[in-house]
């Protein structure tokens, strides 16, 4: 199950991962789960959330020369939090 992807996103928000680490880990795990079929076994909420988080990881860049659609670290965290809230995966404090 792709809850591992949700946990990676939560680790970013908990400051256990940097944005660069999030991007790398998320994309690597997502590709592995896509290739081994794990993603197909998820509920719709997990699948849709994972897909949105993938897009956010893909839009992140640490480069100061960002395009309008690119996200910096702060923007990434804001969007990841919104996505987790949308699908009720945000850990309760």
From TrEMBL:
<dbReference type="GO" id="GO:0030153">
    <property type="term" value="P:bacteriocin immunity"/>
</dbReference>
<dbReference type="InterPro" id="IPR036471">
    <property type="entry name" value="Colicin_D_sf"/>
</dbReference>
<dbReference type="InterPro" id="IPR015287">
    <property type="entry name" value="Colicin_D_immunity_dom"/>
</dbReference>
<dbReference type="Pfam" id="PF09204">
    <property type="entry name" value="Colicin_immun"/>
</dbReference>
<feature type="domain" description="Colicin D immunity protein">
    <location>
        <begin position="1"/>
        <end position="86"/>
    </location>
</feature>
<protein>
    <submittedName>
        <fullName>Colicin immunity protein</fullName>
    </submittedName>
</protein>
<dbReference type="GO" id="GO:0015643">
    <property type="term" value="F:toxic substance binding"/>
</dbReference>
């Amino acid at each position: 199950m792709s809850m591992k992807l949700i946990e990676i996103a939560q680790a970013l928000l908990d400051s256990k991962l940097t944005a660069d680490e999030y991007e790398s880990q998320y994309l690597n795990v997502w590709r592995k789960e896509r290739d081994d079929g794990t993603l197909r076994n998820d509920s719709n909420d997990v699948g849709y959330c994972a897909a949105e988080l993938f897009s956010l990881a893909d839009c992140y860049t640490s480069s100061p020369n960002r395009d309008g659609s690119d996200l910096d670290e702060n923007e990434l965290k804001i969007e990841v939090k919104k996505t987790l809230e949308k699908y009720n995966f945000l850990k309760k404090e």
